[in-house]
Amino acid sequence: MAFTFLHTADLHLDAPLRAVALRDPELAAEIGVASRTAFSRIVDLCLAEAVAFLVIAGDLWDGTYSSTKTPRFLKQELLRLEAAGIGCYILRGNHDALARQTGELEAPANTTVFGARPSTVELTIDGQPVALHGLSFREPHAPESLLPRYPAPKPGAFNLGLMHTSLNGSPGHDPYAPCSLAELEAHGYDYWALGHIHRRFVHRGRATVVMPGTPQGRDIGEAGAASVTLVRVGDDGTVTLEERSVAPLRFDRLALDCTGIADWSDLLAHLDRALRAAAEAPRAEDHLVLRPVLTGATPLAWRIARDRDRLTEEARALSAGRRLWIDKLELRLAEEGAELPGAALPEDLVRLVQEDLPEDPALNAALLAAAQELARDLPPEARDLLGQDEAAMAALCRSLLAEGTPLILAELAAEASD
User: Fold this and answer.
1) 94-139 pLDDT tens trace
2) CA 177 from centroid of its chain's CA atoms
3) Tens of pLDDT along 226-237?
4) What is the DSSP string of 22-59?
5) At what angle do helices 308-319 and 264-280 cross, to 10 degrees?
6) Mean pLDDT throughout 65-72?
7) 116 vs 97: CA distance, rounded Å
8) How many Å apart are CA 412 and CA 281, to the nearest integer?
9) How far is CA 34 from CA 13, 28, 112, 203, in A?
10) Could you report the per-residue pLDDT of 289-315, keeping only the tens digit for each?
């Protein structure tokens, strides 16, 4: 018989607030509960679709519980599923690995949390045998493939594997239980419920392989739609996928072409129109966090760079009452029809700021040392915000230094013209 289940991963309950939230207390309140709201909506969707079960393929938590409210909240939601006869099957990933949890979830009878040894749960749904195979992370790192440890498929059953994996990985990131799509297909399961990568990915072949992505983005690095995957299995074993949104909040970039704009009031009017259009565009999420990206050639480029904070506040004022928040402004502007901000300054000073300072070894070392000191003062779970290793942190410092040099010239030029 046909049946339906819901597949999600990477909710990161209790994740630390990102910098955008720390700048805005009202937004902090929204982001602080966004992952919980998303999980409640996942349960709502399970109930509305009368699914047979829910699978969570790792990183349900962001780490250890930062609040005693989280396990209590989670248990209440799982009890809603239990009351409807819906099972829940949870895998532990790198963020919520078994070794990182200080206490075990008091799960209701409908909930299975896979352990560090491979195991199989066998179900019968309206006469259809279903086998769920899973293996949780014991430690936060899993540099070797876990696939060889997964059980063989059960003959005659619909075989579903839960795995937290980076697949073939990506440059600059550590591998987590790495494996290839070909290897997953060769294992003989019908469906692979994956987690770890926060972007949705679907592969159709001998097996259906789905990375659902995170159901709720946490910052502008996770911009765009977030979703869960509703899976319908037909009488003949065919698999149909539906992408469903449950996120209360969405992060997005807003492209703003400023080419030819020469007056500040025209710039504000242009920004207002763009924000109004973004607010009125259809979307599934309740709230929208935007990062306006200003591009193009304009005589206002140096002034925008100098008065970025003022323009940011103007944007936030324009977004008030529109269910919008402004993250920050991203400037990719070029000068047009006006002198560069450093043109009125001595050439040696301009060369020093534009060319010498960004390449100065002592300055770069001092910036790296300051970033490392800042990282030491942050909670352990937030330190990756400045880079996962020294090379990444140094690259961030160089990027910020390059971004800051036009601002220095703009400030110096403004003072010189006063």
Assistant:
1) 888 876 665 566 789 999 999 999 999 999 999 999 999 999 988 8
2) 20
3) 999 999 999 999
4) HT-HHHHHHHHHHHHHHHHHHHHHHHHHT-SEEEEES-
5) 40
6) 74
7) 9
8) 41
9) 9, 10, 25, 29
10) 999 999 999 999 888 988 999 999 999
At which residue do the structure tokens 């936060």 appear? Answer: 140
Structure tokens at 84: 């409807």
Residue 80, SS3 per DSSP: helix
* Amino acid at site 139: E
Contact by Cβ (8 Å): 121, 107? no
Residue 266 CA to residue 258 CA, distance in Å, equals 10
Distance CA 290, CA 268 (A): 16
Q: Are strands 324-326 and 287-298 parallel, antiparallel or unpaired?
A: parallel
Per the CATH hierarchy, to which homologous superfamily does domain 3-244 belong?
Metallo-dependent phosphatases (3.60.21.10)
Query: What is the helix (H) or strand (E) element at residue 268, kind and residue range?
Result: helix 264-280
Whole-number Å distance between alpha carbons of 94 and 81:
26
* Cβ atoms of 341 and 400 closer than 8 Å: no
Instruction: Look up residue 29 and give its amino acid.
Output: A
How large is the angle between the packed helices 25-49 and 69-83, nearest 10 degrees?
Answer: 20
Q: What is the DSSP letter of 373?
A: H
Q: Which tens digits make up the pLDDT trace of 201-257?
A: 999 999 999 999 999 998 888 889 999 999 999 999 999 999 999 999 999 999 999
Token pair of 350 as six digits: 């301009």
From CA 246, how far away is CA 249, in angstroms rounded? Answer: 9
DSSP H helices, 50-180, are 69-83
Domain edges within the chain: 3-244, 248-338, 343-418
Instruction: Please tell me the number of Cα atoms within 13 Å of 329 on its side-chain side.
Output: 22
Question: What's the rounded Cα separation, in Å, for the pair 354 and 185?
Answer: 53
What is the C-alpha R_g of the chain? 25
